Amino acid sequence: MSTVPLDRPPANALVPARAQGGYLRAIRTAIRSRPAGGIAVLFITIQIVCVVGGLLFPDQFRYLIPANIRVTLKAVAPLGIMSLGVGMLMIAGEFDLSVGALYSFCAVFAATLANDHFGGIDNPAAPFIGAALAIVVGILAGLVNGFVTIRFSIPSFITTLGAMLLWKGGVLLYNGASAVSFLPNNPFAVLFAGQFWLLDAGFVWFILLAVVAFFLLHHHRFGNHLYAVGGNQQAAIAIGIKPARVKLVAFAITGGLAAFSGIIAMTRVGSVQPGGGQGMELQAIAACVIGGFALMGGRGSIIGIVLGTALVFTINDILLLLRAPGFYFDMFVGALIVGAVIMNHAIRRRS
Amino acid sequence: MTVTLDQQPAPPAARETGSVPIYEARNISKRYGNMQALTRVNFRVNRKEVIGLLGDNGAGKSTMIKMMSGIVRPDSGEILVDGVPIRVESRADSERIGIETIYQDIALVDPMSITRNIFMGREITNRFGFMRHREMERQAVQVLDSAVHISGIDDPDKEVGFLSGGQKQAVAIARAVYFKRRMLLLDEPTSALSVRETERLLEYVARLKHEDVSSVLVTHNIYHAFMVCDRFVVMSHGTPVFEARKEETTMQEVTDHVIRT
Amino acid sequence: MTRGLRSSCIALVTAMLLGLSTWPASASPPDRNQDFSKLHMLFLIWSFESNAFFAPMVNGVHDAEKAKRISVDIEYGNEDLTRMNNILETAIANGTNGIAVTIPNDVALNNVLCGAMKKGIPVIAFNIDNSQHAAGKTCRLAYVGQNFVAAGYVLGKELIKKYHIGKGDLVFTPVEAPQAVYAVQRHEGVAKALAEVGATTEILGTGNDHAKALDLMTQYLLGHSNTKAVVGLGQTPTSQAVQAIKDAGLHIPAAGFDVDGEILRNIENGSMMATVDQQPYTQGYYTVAQMADLLEFGLAPSDMDTGGVGLIEKGNVGLAKQWAGITR
Q: Where would you tag: which of A118, B28, C145, C224 has the fewest CB atoms within 10 A of its CB?
């Protein structure tokens, strides 16, 4: 088609920036343009400092000894897995405060099913069936959260606050206040709590799920729809995306992952307490915010979730290794949340 | 010769092309609570035609556009596409007809990149739904470069939130341009554009006509309308009150109808 | 002086000088009061830092820390078994010399504690031990805490004696968490005493919050006006018992477990019969002291029934009141 341009922009004006300039510029652009850029820098810096500290003072700061690496990786998994779901839902502009209660309920559900049915806990298939059904319960709970939120136009914060209390009481109704033991045989035990050198099964699951979530969020059209619905729901509707459908899927994923994280934690420890998981919903949101998520939705990344969670547990580990009093942990994480948000804003403003 | 409409219109006269209107709305009404937004509106768009939809604020122009693009469902009336009655009750329906819209409140998602915004909801994917980023970027670069001449956008990966108002509008235009098939609806598209960019856009709309893509242009600017439109429809209080072809009327007359009704 | 005597003197003086010169080189007896702070141990409390019950315990830990010159890391499990596991494993990786821990659930903690013992890190349990006192069952060397069943039995007998509880009488026994180990065991002791005279008990869960507990207990008593006595099985219900009885318009005796200012005031003015003090200060102090003795001198720790079967009653409430929250 013929055009009558008055001043046509130069031919290479639309070449993507990463082909121009040097590596340093590319790195700076990457940090500025990604929501997790700032936190990646912080995380890498802290790791370098810790590694150097561990090498220089191996007896006073046992950061690098295998047992410490093992326990830190083990600790990350449950919150990390839960945060993957919570984060993806946050991108769509919704919250799920019931994940901590689901973590507990679904674990208790899985344990009681495996102990009392399907041949008992010694039957190798029983824990698998119990766990699978518990994850189904988590998914259904998420769908209910989503349905009530969307159908009745209630803010998801409120819906899931109610759901949290319901599941919290529900677990006591279902099985009372006593702890339930869960001691499965192999292959379940090794698949979900086995230890391979430095990695434990929970951490491997976390990484696997993070990779799947990465492809789903950043490379699948569903992920694009999540961002659209969370970033500007009106625009998404105008384009023809159905926010209800997108959000329901996100709610379902969140519920399922919450159940999965509870099962991982329970298998590692061998029993589950009905009150466990309390407060994890806020910790998951905090990890996401530290990783660059916007509370309003539309902004965030999987790497941000992974780094945010990893950073929180790195700080925890450092404080324990330095034998600092426990309350420092809460204060540190609080400062980290505020600092991360300020830093992210500053970086974005300068772009 | 002008025609003032206050009754049912005569059946549409055949245009030079001698064809049936590509889009016709008959007796469309829409009410929001107590407010009647559209009252028994009759409106048609012919092939190779640019229509200027004018009227003061609150006349129902934006509602009309939203109705045509499917995101608002009429309470009564019928819609015909190529003479065939069709239900247009969702964006998917209007997309199937080949209608693209550039909205007044820019329908872009700020935290997303230009490429993802252009292809939002219509991503180029492989068999399993995974997006083909490189292909999408290539197309985005092409449409930004060729049709719309955006100033200052050098990276299709850039977040739309960092663009100026004019650049954002340009991205919205690029998206509509890329996906347009039969009809382009433009709801006050030049409000954030510079003079030069406005001129280019209007030229483009005129060009589209010859490529068999009709347009409906909602604007407050009579000069712009006269530059590019073939026919004017003035709306007031939810219904068309005046309709005329460009050669049959003057700017003053059209303006009078906008102001006085 | 004869030559022989002179030689002997020289020899003696030389020997003395030689002896003196080697004196610094020979080992002086070790100083049992030396600084042992290079030794550090973990003191892991099951609950929250904000739980007031543990305040006297922490004071006890600090006092023993000073007395034995060992260094102690106090950590809190926040009632989360996974968190407790993480803290334990990190401490083991960090080379801690000893572990003192509450064991609310031995299944969850067995692996890590046995692993610690196998590595040569001694483990002493305090305050709760779910495996119930049998050393060797859950890989720990000793338990420093109260024998809840015995204490409950003593309390129950005293209640029966003083207030003539008899056949068919109902005693209300509220507790924070009915399925917790301490609750089950205390209830067992009280119920055993009451069963001997044909009386029964009813448990109600109140949670840790004092205000909520007061509401629940009052409502129960309003609905069960034939209750003969109230025996709180934990600090929260015990502290609210007298007020709940008053609010429900009844005139029945109250007794319970654990200590706080309100409870002691009630004992002093006679509205509460007695309370059982498991003596958290003692648990803190002697757990640390025994661990220190083990690490410093190799002395083996032993079980300790803190608080024994002593009750705090009107006659001995003075000192308790004076030191409430600090060491009581």
A: C224
The DSSP-derived string for B119-150 is TTTS--B-TTSBB-HHHHHHHHHHHIIIII--
Give me A190's structure tokens.
Answer: 């090794």
Domain ranges of chain B: 19-98+180-261, 106-179
Write the residue in C82, C107, C177 that is nearest to A177 by C-beta: C177
CB A256 within 8 A of CB A138: yes
Residues A258/A263/A265/A266 CA torsion (nearest 10 deg): 140
Task: Tell me the pLDDT tens digit for each residue of C132-167.
Answer: 544 455 688 999 998 888 999 999 999 999 999 999
CB contact under 8 A, C93 and A62: yes
Q: Which of A14, A236, A240 is the closest to B95 by Cβ?
A: A240
Distance from CA of B255 to the nearest CA of A (A): 30
Which residue spans within chain C are E strands per DSSP?
40-45, 71-76, 98-103, 123-129, 142-145, 170-175, 200-205, 229-232, 254-257, 275-276, 304-305, 311-312
Tens of pLDDT, residues C306-327: 887 778 999 888 888 888 778 8
Q: Which residues of B touch A90 (CB under 8 A)?
A: none
Nearest to A326 among C76, C79, C90 (CB): C76
List of residues 6+ apart from B143 with CB closer than 8 A? B118, B174, B177, B178
Is this prediction's ipTM beyond 0.90? no
The amino acid that residue A97 corresponds to is L
- Angle among Cα A209, A211, A215 to the nearest 5 degrees reads 115
Considering the domain delimited by A37-54+61-350, tell me its CATH architecture: Orthogonal Bundle (1.10)
CATH, domain B19-98+180-261, list 1.10.760.10, 3.40.50.12780, 3.40.50.300, 1.10.10.60: 3.40.50.300
Tokens found for residue A289? 């915010």
Place of tokens 């449950």: A78
Residues of A in contact with C91 (CB under 8 A): 320
Given a contact cutoff of 8 angstroms between Cβ atoms, the answer to whether C63 and C285 are in contact is: yes
